[in-house]
Amino acid sequence: MPEQVPTPLAAPADPGVLPPATVARHETAPPSPARRTLVAVGVAAAVVVLLLFVWYARDVLLLAFAGVLLAVFLRRLACWISARTPIPASWAVGVVALALAGLLAAAFWLRGPAIAQEVDTLRESLPRAAQELRTRLEGYAWGRQLVAEAPRARELLPDDPDAISRATGVVSRTFGALASALVILFLGLVLAASPKPYVDGLLALVPARRVARGREVLDRVADTLWWWLVGKLIAMVIVGLLTWLGLSLFGVPLALTLGILAALLDFIPNIGPIIAGVPAVLLALMISPTTALYVFIFYVVIQSLESYVLTPVLQMKTVKLPPALTIVAQVLLGVLAGGIGLILATPLAAAIFVMVKMLYVEDTLGDEVKAIKGS
To answer: How many domains is the chain built from?
Structure first.
């Protein structure tokens, strides 16, 4: 038989070093099912904890957002003053706050007593206007059916023994509103005077390679909130002046108070103008049904002008929210957080809209999106 040549054996491997193929298999080995399950459970638990925190702290978070909104407004005005004077931005915040307080005090000094008297007259006139509407409705068959199905005033109000608790509730709500206003004012002043520590603390939660992008997102959100506030304040002034002039021409009483009410409620898109139009139409009904119809048409025209002409022009430098998204945000936050949620729904939706575009659409999906800020 031929002699068999032994096959050469590989050199013995170093026991402390794995072969290259083994190393590759070790590095690319997928995580075990148990580890994947633990990661999924951990992420789900974190999301649940975050949602519970947001749910129970929703009022506090909305107050904080209102403070941020005020801080953005004060800081931008302070930076504008600081760029044109030797006053530092932190001190300019105090100058802006004192100037705004002085304007409010002067307006109250000049027109406060007259406006307060008109408010009392409006409060006394609205029940009579509602009774006038009821009387006119009862003159028609469909009106009588509508009045019969509507709840009576006694059913809407508690009995007399509950008058003390009702008064206590009013006092409690008043003090709650004042406390919320003080919190918003304090947060706004503190954040506007020194925003850097809070911004840096927020960016400390972001990975180091994403800090620059995080700062860019925060700057874009601040720009959006600023231009939204500027546009909204301009729209409020225009709507208030037009309402005052129009109601004065129609001969509706308390036109100045109704104009101020329309300007303030215009801060709440879609819903605010409807609320402002109800007392004006009721007071016009006391004059004549024709006047009430003219006032109703007048409010519809103003609302259409503000929604389809004025707001789109003013939103050229800010985010353009779809109307359906704005209404959904208002209804959702109104149900979850009440009045303050309804008031802050639109600017909060605008801020979230910008963050979703930049962090998800641009960064995650990689799609190119036109800049939010107009050029």
So the answer is: 1
